[in-house]
Amino acid sequence: MRFYLLLPLAVSFLPMVAIADDCEVSISAGDSMSFNTRTMDIPMSCEQFTVNFEHTGRLPKGGMGHNWVMTQSSDVQEVVKAGTAAGLANNYLPADDSRVVAATPMLGGGEKASVTFETSSLNANSSYTFFCSFPGHSAMMRGSVNLVE
Ligand SMILES: [Cu+2]
């Protein structure tokens, strides 16, 4: 009797767990100019999406800092340029820039940070890119964002 009562609960709970797992991703970078992935998926079924970013290296953020930034692909170049001008104190990102969909702070070795954003701000017909805005890094440190169902 207990079995029959518990089964529907278990079945209905599983999809919720699966959705929650899909609504975040973990990305890292070490003491070289590369992320551990060149691509990431954002399910549009997620209301919010979280990126957990970790600098797994040892070098300080002034020398080999990394962040995770997402913009439309066509905005990467200009945001990197504006970020370089903004300097390390501003995480190498222009302040309150609407082109930046989401970004973590600039991290040094051993640090981690997460950022959560609303997927309603994304346009399914646009192309998005993630990158590191530390000067000179975005040429190597970039990847494509796939908006999936
Ligand atoms: Cu970097």
Give the C-level CATH assignment. Answer: Mainly Beta
Strand order of the largest sheet: 2-8-7-4-5
Low-confidence stretches: 1-12
Bound molecules: copper (II) ion
Keywords: Copper, Electron transport, Metal-binding, Periplasm, Signal, Transport
Function: Transfers electrons from cytochrome c551 to cytochrome oxidase.
Protein name: Azurin
Signal peptide: 1-20
What does this entry show, briefly?
The chain contains three helices and eight strands. It is an alpha/beta fold.
Please describe the structure with a list of short key phrases separated by commas or semicolons:
single chain, 149 residues, Immunoglobulin-like, 5-stranded mixed beta sheet, 24% helix, globular, disordered N terminus, binds copper (II) ion, transport, signal, Cu-binding_ET
